[in-house]
Amino acid sequence: MTDKNIQLTSTISEDNKLTLALKNIEMPKPNADEVVIRIEAAPLNPSDLGVLFSAADMSTAKQSGTDENPVITADVPAQFMPSLKTRVGKATQVGNEGAGTVVAAGSSPPAAQALMGKTVAVIGGGTYRQFICANVQSCLELKEGTTAKEGASSFVNPLTALAMVETMRAEGHKAIIHAAAASNLGQMLNRICIADGVDLINIVRKPEQEKLLRDMGAKYIVNSSSDTFLADLTAAIIETGATIAFDPIGGGQLTSDILNCMEVAAARDIKEHTIYGSDTFKQVYIYGALDRGPITLNRNFGFAWAVSGFLLFNALGKLGTDTVMKMRKRVADEITTTFASNYTHEVSLAEVLHLQSIAAYSKQATGEKYLIKPQA
Amino acid sequence: MTDKNIQLTSTISEDNKLTLALKNIEMPKPNADEVVIRIEAAPLNPSDLGVLFSAADMSTAKQSGTDENPVITADVPAQFMPSLKTRVGKATQVGNEGAGTVVAAGSSPPAAQALMGKTVAVIGGGTYRQFICANVQSCLELKEGTTAKEGASSFVNPLTALAMVETMRAEGHKAIIHAAAASNLGQMLNRICIADGVDLINIVRKPEQEKLLRDMGAKYIVNSSSDTFLADLTAAIIETGATIAFDPIGGGQLTSDILNCMEVAAARDIKEHTIYGSDTFKQVYIYGALDRGPITLNRNFGFAWAVSGFLLFNALGKLGTDTVMKMRKRVADEITTTFASNYTHEVSLAEVLHLQSIAAYSKQATGEKYLIKPQA
Q: Cβ–Cβ of B314/A303 closer than 8 Å?
């Protein structure tokens, strides 16, 4: 085991600058219930980009340093600085999850020592580094033969997709609408819903995304770019009875469109018109901010509705420990099938900080996904 | 007891016309659990205007007939007709509540007969008429000495205001924000909160509304027209810990402003910045549509939030029968104090259909309130 440990950090300084850089940090020593993991693969999720870039205007990004040790600087618009004051001057760690090999373990025999040499996935703590120290509770032991690359995305997308289905059940809905449905997360959700017999309406924007999901067995696919989108969505809602939706976009009118289509579907059997709309409760959860613009709600959907933020950790808290433990076990069991991720690019820690990579992965194009290999 | 019974009706016809007219209807005969009430006073609530005018463009309204038997016609824009198909051709009754004297009672001794001759308030059924037949469960017996005018608004505003406080308690919040707070409903909510020791932040638009509420003992009043509105609201939220708001407006940015101020208040103690915002759950209930324009949410408030429709009957269903029975008893006990309504105009059924009255009451100006006297 080497003593070299490189970490990617994101720092905002008082002069309205963002700086991204690699730092040499100490090799960690595990406490009793901790292990040290050599991170071999970590995904670049949309939520990681938020931490990485914060509120910086990346069109102003400049690269300096060397190819092996690049430094990125970019301007942070002054109006965002007040809300960032707890970040100013601190080298913030980045990376919500990853996977690798346990190379050192604390003294606790069943918890830590049992993981020695195993391939594990890990959540939290800034995984864009070479060696991380983590509590065993943050680790998911992968089945023998699972690679770090296969296990790199064991938490954020799999648990979010499972939490959507469990939330649907817990809140009494019977089918799901998913926006930006061709994403890695969307593909997982499609596989879960097929396996569990839950009807899923996939909203995509492009014909090739329709084809991708259709080839994966999706039954309900509607294209929001189509002239018949609202009619298509309403017809699918009538067929499935979907009254809950998950949307990672937020900005724009899609949430409103979904609620209005749900209401048209719900109101079609109403004998007596009321200004309050149908009694059918309609829920849209917004779980991302792919569009940071305003969410515009054009109310034609009565009074039985909610639009809410959806955050994995809050959702898991609501679902409870038993459900969450079952979800984790299912992820480990099905990580190469139901929960398989597909990466289109692999980069080293240094390459994460190359301008041409940033230009590519910051687009967050559906179907494009980056994997970081910190040992490369 | 006369045989004359006049009812106000609202009808939409297939040629995109709204017609408001008075009709002679039969004098009702009560079944065992029913009573016949001579309606002596009924309020014009915003929710009644929605039924009365439906989607008609009232700027096109014309009056015909006589002063005693007026007829109003107005155009319904073609785009709204599809959503109104269950209303077309039906003479829809109007009036959500009212009060008067029980002049006939069904055979059931304890339920119906016990109300004979009493002054009662009644919910539902189209109270803009002279004599109405109602199930005793829809009636609230008023205390001896309470007049029909005093009891006319015993349901919609009092129960909505009480449901807000009970919902705050049931959902674990500790203080309330109320928009359009100088309304009759807002004044009731202010009195309830003072009596119950609940902190209430009143949002108003005008200095005279600030004065009105201040004279009624309100402690927290912020003016949304002020340059310092956001700072004032944030300061009041910090002082009270309010994380739930009720807004009858909907359209525009107020809901968004409230959530953002709540988040600023919640985030001020956070040591470590996160892109997901604070853990503090923030709820805005929209209970009206004073502004039918789009609701615009400018998200700077993280992921722990919900914006939901709030409808009295759904809210009562969630709160449960025991709570609702206590609420009804409190309304009857305190109808001339906590739940007192203030009417600025009294009109006959015919006068409801005079163009100059329509022009006045359709403005829904805060502080203006119309009472209908069907026996006048």
A: yes
